[in-house]
Write a structure and sequence with these properties.
Largest sheet: none
Order of helices and strands: HHHHHHHH
Length: 180
């Protein structure tokens, strides 16, 4: 009997955390940039609400006792909103840069010949790229057809079917590579 030693989920997660450890600075930067970026988005809506309140209910601002906190000229608010919007865009770009840097560095580490063998590593990359392209090309229109002709409530089941397909294909890959 050919019995292969399979790693547990905890062992796999431990190894993945070990792979991410050298990229910890980029992970912390991505988290901080994302947090500040979302705060900018929140304050944009708050300031937009304040501009609307200035225009819709101007009498309200004269009844509040502390005008320093609420009353600010609309020009000033709009200027602050423009600065925050620009800052939000820059922060989002930098966050995505850090996230993609981490992802591609990890892919470079994982896709080495030590993991798949020198003769199969490029083939695995080719299959992954072709599958990703096919998925990006075909899956959104397929769901659009399902949603238009049946119901959009099928989306969770659609995702579940794709997950089952991915697990099945992964198991096939593991089975075929373990034989060689």
């Amino acid at each position: 009997m050919n019995k292969t030693n399979r790693r547990s989920a905890v062992q796999i997660m431990g190894q993945l955390i070990g792979l991410v450890k050298p990229l910890l600075i980029f992970m912390i930067a991505a988290i901080l940039l994302g947090t500040v970026g979302y705060l900018c988005a929140i304050f944009l809506t708050i300031l937009a609400g304040q501009v609307l309140a200035h225009g819709l209910i101007p009498q309200l601002f004269f009844r509040i006792r502390n005008p320093r906190l609420v009353f600010m000229p609309v020009k000033t608010i709009l200027t602050i909103m423009i600065v925050i919007a620009l800052l939000r865009g820059i922060l989002h770009y930098l966050e995505q840069y850090c996230n993609h840097y981490i992802a591609f560095r990890l892919l470079a580490i994982i896709r080495t010949p030590e993991h798949f063998g020198a003769d199969r590593s490029q083939a695995v990359i080719g299959i992954q790229m072709a599958s990703a392209y096919l998925g990006n090309l075909a899956m959104p229109p397929l769901f659009g057809l399902l949603a238009n002709n049946i119901t959009p409530a099928l989306f969770p089941f659609y995702l579940l079917a794709l997950l089952v397909l991915m697990v099945f294909m992964h198991e096939q890959l593991v089975r075929k590579t373990s034989r060689c």
